[in-house]
What does this fold into?
Amino acid sequence: MAHKVWGGRYLTNEETETFLRESKTARICTMNDDGTIHAAPVWYGYEKGEIIIITPDHSRKARNVKRNRNVTILIDIEQPAKGVLLYGTAELESNFDLESITIAIGQRYMSKEEAKENWQTLAPPTAKWLKITIKPDKMTSFSY
It folds into this structure.
């Protein structure tokens, strides 16, 4: 996927892939019904060029994506300043293996054992959850 440069240096395709696999927090931006932007930090998974997020069905981001599937994702770090900005379309899925997705995402932030122990705390079975998969249409990167 081609990158546009804001200034400074852009990340190569290989650097972008590594950055997306290794970074910890994404910010998903969705459109509120009044036209304002809702930005929320989220833990995420990265698979086959797609960003994967799980969220409660009643969350603002879930409600916004149900109404408008266009989203922006910012994944960045401060020192040294670098990041990737993705513009894409979100797909919602309510029928998925919540345990395996939660553990897979959790392993980015803790050991596999801790992720297995904590998955029910992060995603209690009584809650209704959605899997949001973002397929990037455009991407830009920066590195200062």
